[in-house]
Every structure is written in C-alpha cells, then in structure tokens.
Specification:
The protein is of the alpha/beta class. It has a single domain, classed as Metal-dependent hydrolases (TIM Barrel). The protein contains 12 helices and 19 strands. The longest helix has 16 residues. The two termini are 20 Å apart.
C-alpha cells in the first residue's frame, strides 16, 4: 500500500508518499513515480500512540471492561499498543495466570498488547513471558502491598534478571482514609507527602531502572528527575483537579491535586519535562462510583488521552513534538519497539486527523463498557483513520478491525 499526504516526519510536516509492506514502513519519499494505486489521506498523518498503563479488567472484572472493549476503545482513540496492569482478579502473579491472560488478550484484543506481571516469587518463571513487572507500594484495586523484606529480595531478583519494574508510589503511613467527604478532602487524606516520601524511599531499593507511575505534581516530577527515574503522568492529573465537579467519579489513586498543582504539572508537560503520558485507564461502573467513601478509585481514559492532547496542539498550548514524544515515541522505546515514528523500518501504525475537526467528548460515542468519562464535554480531536500494522482498523471514526488481531509483544518480539 502507498499513502500520499501531509505527515509528521523528522520533526516537520512534510508532503510525502509512505510505502507500507509487511506491517512496516518501506519508504518515505517526497516524490514518487509508480504505477501502483496511491491512497490520498487528507489532513495530517501522525504516528499512532502506545499506552503503557491500562487496566482492561480481564479476567475477573469484565463487567467494567474486557480486552475486546478496552482495546477497541484504545484503537478509536489512536492507540495501537497497550500494556495491561496485573491487578486483575485473580492477580497476574504466577506463570500460569500470566499465560492464561496472554490467551485472553490474543483471543480478544484488536491491537498489539503487552502484560505486566505482579512482582512475586514466580518472577523467574514469569520472566519467560514478560519483561515488565508492577509493584504497589500501597494497596490498590486487587493488589496488596509487599512487606519490605520480601520486596527487597524480589527487586534484587528482578534486577539480576533484567526485569523492568513500574512503581505505584504512595506511602500509606501518611493516609487518613476515613476523613474525607469530597475530592479536596480525599486529596488531603492521601497527601502529596505520601507520594514524595515513597519516591524518596525507592532510592534505597535495588533494581536499576525505576518507572514511576502517575506523577501528580511538579514536586513529584522534580524528585523523579533528581533520582534519575522514568516519570509518567496521566491525562486526569494534567486536565483535572479537586475543583472539577466530578464528586466520586473523580476519585483516583493517587488523588487529583489542587488546581495550582495541576497547572504546574501542565506547565512541565508543555516544557517537555515529562518522559511519558499514559492513561491509567481504570474503569468502574457508574453505580459503583455513587458514594465517595465506598467508590473504587480509577477513571477511564484510554480512548480520550491522545484526542485531548491533540486538541491542545490545535489550540497552540503544546507542541506536536512533545505530544508525539510522550504518547508515541518514548513509550515505544521503553518496550523496545520500532513504533512512534514515520520512518523507514518502523511499524506502520498511523493515524489520520484533521486539526480543525475538534468535537465535544461524549460518553455515548465512546466504546468503554463502563459507559462514562470524566472528560465529558471536553474538546478532543479523534482520528478519522487508524492503521495498525498497515491495516485500517478505524475508518471515518468507526471501528472496522477484527477481534483477536492484536499480537502479544513478548511472544512476537515486535
């Protein structure tokens, strides 16, 4: 297949021809003489995104989401690769459970996917199937905190095996869980000091590469930078704060912070100081989120992450290079994938957008099984077309792909 259009190539918008052969980009040329059919793409062609932090709730919590609906949502938001977290039911903490979850993904996923294992005594066996592991430094959905001695031993083993570890950083010694009635009080009940103290404690732990999930403030990012870790931020911490009129629907771990903290984090994003933006897509049913104390923490976000950020590019608030780096290129690099660039030899995972085609985000148009979004009414730019491995899976903003077309990353070494 040969595509002609305006593409983001090597940091610039360029009118070019893109040749696709056997899942990869075969060439990118400014001019071309050919007798083959050339497909004209209007608007702008960009690399598709990679989301390093999703919870597709499969197995065990599939009333909220499953690998089919979650991956379809991702695709319609311009994401063609995801990494799913291990706090399912049962948790993905054994070789057998990991192997079974791979089968679930291969049967259901419409896009390429990888899996985190939950750090456990079976890390050596699980390492045969994945290089990525998650540690919860405080309890979260279907995941318990490891005791310090056990954690030290497992991280030493992870380091010796070359495993890559992601951390949920909160110190529960700072929690005051029973003292909140709204989002502002929930923020105070799991305060910023909890996050900062936990990040600092990681410096004493073994394991060379440390990936810190869902940073919430400039102070968190500065600590991560100083310690040489990899920092991730989420759309909800970039776009939302305790001032949002979300009530229980805005309950997440770690919490939404004040408007000023949100603004400062956004400034750092604008300046390119973040490494990666990931959705932390964590859906729950609406009926579960009705009362703030009992509501589980988490919001859906995989379908709206890229569209929200592209709208900010159109508004002139952030550069396209920052968005591409943090949503497409840097996440792919972490996985060792040749994705996130429109360049010869890279995977032909692409999206087509129109920068003038922004629209209000409407939960009725999204593909989440949970049926809601914290970004209702926000403006987004959704891709008109999405290609995964050179195949069109979204056409005119409608999903046209096939269930089970996604490939498991470790198995296929893509």
């Amino acid at each position: 297949m040969i595509i002609k259009g305006t593409a983001y190539v090597k940091g610039e918008y360029e009118n070019c021809y893109i040749g696709i052969e056997e899942k990869n980009i075969d060439f990118v040329k400014k001019s071309l003489k050919t007798t083959e059919e050339v497909k004209k793409f209007d608007g702008v062609i960009l690399p598709a995104g990679t989301d390093l932090h999703v919870h597709f709730r499969d197995p065990g919590m599939t009333k909220k989401e499953d690998f089919h609906t979650g991956s379809m949502s991702a695709a319609c938001g311009g994401i063609t690769t995801v990494m799913d977290m291990p706090n399912t039911d049962p948790p993905t903490n054994t070789y057998g459970r990991l192997k079974e979850k791979i089968k679930i993904g291969e049967n259901k996923s419409v896009i390429d996917f990888g899996l985190y294992g939950l750090l456990s005594e079976e890390i050596e066996d699980m390492k045969e199937l994945t290089d990525f592991f998650k540690v919860y430094m405080a309890p979260s959905t279907s995941a318990e905190r490891l005791e310090e001695a056990e954690l030290m031993g497992l991280l030493q083993k992870a380091g010796s095996l070359g495993a890559k570890v992601a951390f949920h950083c909160e110190d529960e010694n700072f929690f005051e869980e029973d003292s909140f009635e709204d989002l502002s009080e929930f923020n105070k009940s799991r305060p910023l000091e909890s996050e900062l103290n936990c990040i600092d404690k990681l410096d004493d732990l073994p394991c060379e590469e440390k990936y810190i999930c869902h940073l919430t403030t400039r102070e968190s990012l500065e600590r991560v930078d100083d310690l040489g870790y990899i920092g991730e931020a989420t759309p909800h911490h970039l776009f939302l704060s305790t001032d949002a009129f979300l009530g229980p629907y805005g309950k997440v771990n770690p919490p939404l912070r004040s408007h000023m903290k949100q603004y400062e984090l956004w400034e750092d994003f604008e300046r390119g100081r973040l490494d990666i933006v990931a959705s932390d897509h964590a859906p729950h049913l609406e009926k579960e989120k009705e009362e703030i104390k009992q509501a589980p923490s988490g919001v859906p976000g995989v379908e709206t992450m890229y569209p929200l950020l592209l709208n900010e590019v159109a508004r002139g608030r952030v550069s396209i290079s920052n968005v591409i780096d943090m949503v497409a290129l840097n996440p792919a690099k972490r996985l060792g994938l040749k994705k996130g660039k429109i360049e010869e030899g890279y995977r032909s995972d692409l999206i087509q957008i129109e920068f003038r085609d922004n629209e209000p985000i409407d939960s009725d148009k999204l593909h989440y099984k949970c049926g809601w979004t914290p970004f209702e009414g926000f403006q987004g730019i959704f891709p008109k077309k999405v290609l995964s491995k050179g195949e069109v899976i979204v056409e005119d903003k409608q999903f046209v792909g096939e269930k089970g077309e996604g490939e498991y990353l470790k198995k296929n070494n893509i």
